[in-house]
Amino acid sequence: MAAVCQVTGAVPGFGHTISHSHRRTKRRFDPNVQKKTYFVPSLGRSIKLNVSAKGIKVIDARGIESVVKDLLAKGVKL
What we know:
Number of strands: 4
Largest sheet: 2 strands, antiparallel
Helix content: 25-40%
Number of helices: 2
Distance between the termini: 16 Å
Structural class: alpha+beta
């Protein structure tokens, strides 16, 4: 599964792991992406979304209808 949130657009960040001796090696900071199922009354069916923890909070605050409307306006296939 790709580490991209469908709601917030969060993508992996890149940086360094720094050891005790201060050697730097490249690493990747993945967002906390989870597959969640939501029932959308306007569509009359359930949809599966790959959302980050922040994306889940956005859905809780704005409501699934508002978020789905924005996703459909962007052209995301649900």
